[in-house]
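Lecture 7, part B: from sequences to assemblies.

Below are the input chains for today's worked example.
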Amino acid sequence: MTNKILLVDDDEAISENLSAFLSRSGFLVDTAANGQQALNAIQNSPPDIVIMDVLMPVMDGRQALRQLRNDENWIPVILLTQIGESTERAMALEEGADDYLNKPFDPHELVARIKAVLRRAKQGQPPLSSAWKLTSGDLSIDRKANRVMMGDALVNLTPKAFALLEYLMTHPDEVISRERLLDAVWGWDYPIGTRAVDTRIAELRAALGDNASQPIFIETLPGVGYQFIHEIRAD
Amino acid sequence: MKLKTYWYFLIPALTGLLIAVVLNFTSIPNPIVYLRADLGTFLFLVGLAVSGISWIVRAVSLRITSIRETAREEALHDRRSFLSLLDHELKNPLTAIMAGLANLNDGTQQEALRSVETQVQRMSRLVADLRKLSDLETRPIETSTINLPTLLKEVFTLAQDRAGDDRGLTLTIPQAPWPLPEIQGDRDLLFLAIHNVIDNAIKYTQPGDTIELRAREEGSHVRIEIADTGPGIPQNEIDKVWGELFRGAGARGVPGSGLGLALVQAIIRRHGGTTSIQSQVDKGTSVILSLPIQAVTEL
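Predicted structure of the full complex, as structure tokens:
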């Protein structure tokens, strides 16, 4: 089945070039130039996924997304912006986007994200990324209180390690490269920083009592990245 | 209506001047007034006058400092908003170009396309660096206790990997009379700062040159120094190397965005520290990062 995408961006250069690329990648593409047009398009002919910019005239992407979620519409949405800081992350959680991608991005990366979100999305259900609490076996994280529990015991994590765990848990069926983790969690992407990711993953594993050679939660895929492998439930 | 402070001093003075002019140049009687006082009272009045004058001088100098400070902050703020705007305005065209390039990737003219792609990636990195720089001024810093010897060893190992065997790289961390103190700060940012400086040293030196990374406690600060026997920086460029997008005459042909040292300075400043540079052409360069041992409260 061909998936239908609604691409929302007020910059014509982007919507033209990107929709051509997405069509060539096997999707059916509709475009809209602002949040209001997007809401109308979603109502008239619902797409399988929405790719939406944030800064747009008439109605911006955040507003449109909030309205969708208020109406209990859980259509998958990828927002084209960055969420680095913790305040932005809390806001993103309330917005309920399925994923975020920062401009400028490699269009192949967008296609990979679209496929992952479509694979993960369950018809008519809120995405993991907008759940306040996530549970995986004995591990549970409370994203509002920034608290991690292992069984009954509180796990102490630094804010970065928490953000890392949160990102891995909300993208469970994807192998996530170190560069992408840097971009998503640190907000930056710099070549030397990949070591910083490894340090934090080691810290996270030690705190969770996870063994790198026989992992329960976080698996290393040599040369590729990390993946959260245990089953996850949204509470 | 609120009067400017100087009017409180000028109004009495101008009123006195006006009356003096009137008395001197009209026929109104202008008698001579004698003041007599005992030494005690006289000295008391002199003391009072000196206090008044020094109070005025101090108030004026404080006001000047505060005006200068505000101007400096405004300039800094303007520059950061400019960087952030620039970042924003460059993002969209870059996104469109990248999508356009992906569409063209159909097997023809591969080489030309790859060259354009390389340049687009270069611009993307520049935009990312600009974002880092504007972010650094505002984002909260995650502080933790940092074991400096461990951090320095990590940076050093990475530098060794990058430099290979043909440069003499050494790391000196003191053990006596006591080891380096722990400091408070954002580990990832400090790693990036020290790495950027040592990476510059590697980029600008030749095989056979020496690069030394050393650290020592100096009063209430830790001084981290990265010295090299590279080409050095001309005197007229030394003050400019910390500026955004500045690239010296010797930097032509060496890859880089001209933002590396600006980032270093922004990171060290956020930690309440200072940066300085000493250099002589054809002899070498020494970059000094000085960080307070006690945490700076406004981190």
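Note for the exam: Chain A has a mean pLDDT of 86. Keep this in mind when comparing with the next example.
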